[in-house]
Every structure is written in C-alpha cells, then in structure tokens.
Amino acid sequence: MKTWEDSEWIFKINAAFTLLFFVLILSFILTLLIIRLYKNRRNRLKKIYEASAEEFINSYLFEEDIDRGVLVEKYEIENLKTNLQKKVFLKSLVGINENFKGESSIALKKLFHQLNLDAFLLKNLQKGDWDKQSRAIYLLAELSIKKNNLVATFLNAKRMEVREQAIYYYLKVSTGKPLEFFSRLTTDLTPWELIYVEDSLKYYYEGSMPDFSKWLDHKLISIVIFSIKMIAQFDQFENIPKVIPFVDHPDEKVRKQAIKTLCKLSCHDILGKLIDKFPKESTVIKKEIISAIMQLGIRVDLLAIKTHVSENDWSTKLAFERVEQHFNKLTA
Fold first, then answer.
1. Is residue 17 part of a domain?
2. Positive or negative: CA dihedral 175, 179, 185, 191
C-alpha cells in the first residue's frame, strides 16, 4: 500500500488545494459570523446609549430641582467614555435640537460645550478621515457652532463630500451673508456643488437673500455664472444694468448665461445689442440670441439676422427656422 510520501505528486497537490479551500471557506464563514455578532452587539449598545442620552437631555432641560453642573460632570465621566457613545449622543442631541428653538436650543448648545464634545468634533476635523470630517462639519452646522475659520479650510478639500458639508455649514450657520465662503474658494465649484448651493439657499437658508451682484467680479468663472443665474432665479431686477456688460464677456458660458438671465428678467433693451453681435458670435451664442428674439422680440428682429445665418451652420439654421415658424403662427 502506498504511503503519503509515495503518492503521486498530482494527488498531493489536489489534497493540498482541497485543504486550503476548506480552510478558506471556514475562515470566511467565521469572519461573517464575527462581523454579524459585532454589528448585533454594536446595535444593541446604540439603543442603550440612545435611551440614556434622551433621558439625560430631558432631565437637563426640564427637571428643576437638580444641580446641572454635577449632572453633566457625572454623565460625561460615566457615559461618554468611547467614541461610539459620543457619536450616539451627538446624533440624539441634534435630533432633539431640531424640535426646539429659543432658550431650549441655546441650552442644548451650552450642553454641547459643557460635555467637551466640541473638542471631540475638532479632533475629527483635524485628524480624522474624510467621512469623519464630513460628519463633524455637519454636526457643527446643525448645532450652529461658530467655527468659520476652521471649516473654511475644507471648502477646497479633495473629497467632494467634505466640500459639500463645508458649503452646507456656511449656508446653515449664516444669518445674513450665506455666500461669504465664496471669497475663500480657490477652485471652481462643480455643477453638482452649484446645484447644492442653489437648493440650500432655497430650502435650508433662513435669512434674507443676498445680493448676487457682489460676486459678479469673482475670479472663478463658475461663481460668476452662478451669480448671474441667481440674479434671474431670485428676480433681482435692480441688477440688470450690472449683468448687461457680461454679454461681451470673453468666456462663452458667461455670455450665454447673461443672455438667459436678461431674457428671464424681460430686458427688452438688450435686444438691439444682441442683434448687432450676432454675426460675430459662436454657434452656441447665435442660438441663444435667436431664442432671445423669440422671447423678447418680434418677426422684424428675427429678419434682421437672417442674412447672417449660414447655410452650412445647420444647427443655427434649424433654430432660426423654428423661431420663424413660431412668428408665422402668431401672424397667421
């Protein structure tokens, strides 16, 4: 009978791979089991910490016959030992703060400092990974904690998620100058970030709307375009004279947005200038001028540019014909 040493080499290799495969499968199953047990334990702890946090906050806010200094000191020592406890407490604090204003909200922010949670967030901001930084900035915003100069350093962060939270912080905390962070930007905002700013102004910002003309001379093209767009979005008719010069801007995207804004604000006075510019403009701007004529002008204005519509420029020619049909229907 053959021994292991005398077995064929192929048998030895198969046996070794079978054993390795079995060990890997067993390790994988054990890893999944450990992760599941860890998550279950973590979730149980979260529920315990949440209940403890809510009970403590309610006592802090509403119980009268207590020494709040002693209560806070005891709670910090006994219940804020780990990062998980601090994270759960902050989540509860923010959730409760959303339901309060006035004195109760001020008391909760005071409690935040008394428990030294500001130091915890600042540590995450300065040394944490990007996800911790995003979370820390979000919590500072929700609690309206003034750390403008520190948060400003994250406006130009590499991770988009961090930049968005920094933007949200300024829009949330500000009461009169929500776009002051524009002056700290060194790189253009992405289209998604600009949409985020616009939505935040509409749905989260609670102060008076800023005068967007302040940012028309910004060094970043994305901010200039955004400001021109917002002038129309928020019907700032008083800024029409400041927008008009931008139809001559060297950047095509700026010229296009300036024309769109002036059309939305019904600036009929710009039409003559646009007709004069038509022959020298790019295809993109020519199409925008044709659209402006449809919105602000009459058939005679359209005919004024007809000789400058090249037969070879099919997209401009198509735009012209569509507007021409539009005026034909109006006069039929």
1. no
2. positive
Pull the structure tokens for residue 15: 């046996």
Residue pLDDT, tens place only, 18-71: 888 888 888 888 888 888 887 888 888 888 888 888 888 888 888 888 888 888
First to last CA, the chain: 106
Longest dimension (CA), the chain: 107
The string of pLDDT tens digits covering residues 141-153 is: 888 888 888 888 8
Query: Please, are residues 213 and 227 in contact by the beta-carbon 8 Å criterion?
Result: yes
Do 327 and 275 share a domain, yes or no?
Answer: yes
pLDDT at 272: 93
Short-list 288, 274, 298, 275, CA closest to 319: 288
Q: Say yes or no: 253 and 319 in one domain.
A: no
Query: What does the alpha-carbon distance between residue 74 and residue 87 come to, in Å, rounded to a whole number?
Result: 18
If asked whether residues 255 and 271 sit together in one domain, one would say no
Q: How many whole angstroms separate alpha carbon 320 and alpha carbon 332? A: 18
Q: Is 279 a member of any domain?
A: yes
- Domain finish residue from 115, 149, 182: 115
201 within a domain of the structure (yes/no)? no
Cβ burial, residue 331 (10 Å; 0-12/13-18/19+): exposed
Domain extent at residue 50: 39-115
Q: Are 234 and 264 in contact (CB under 8 A)?
A: no
Domain total of the chain: 3
Between vectors from CA 197 to CA 195 and to CA 203, what angle results, nearest 5°? Answer: 100
The radius of gyration of the chain's CA atoms, rounded to the nearest angstrom, is 31
Distance CA 261, CA 272 (A): 16
Do 298 and 276 belong to one domain? yes
Q: pTM of this prediction? A: 0.75
Please report whether residue 159 resides in a domain.
Answer: no
Give residues with Cβ within 8 angstroms of 148, minimum separation 6.
Answer: 170, 173
Token digits of residue 48: 């315990």
Given 92, 115, 138, which residue is the final one in a domain?
115
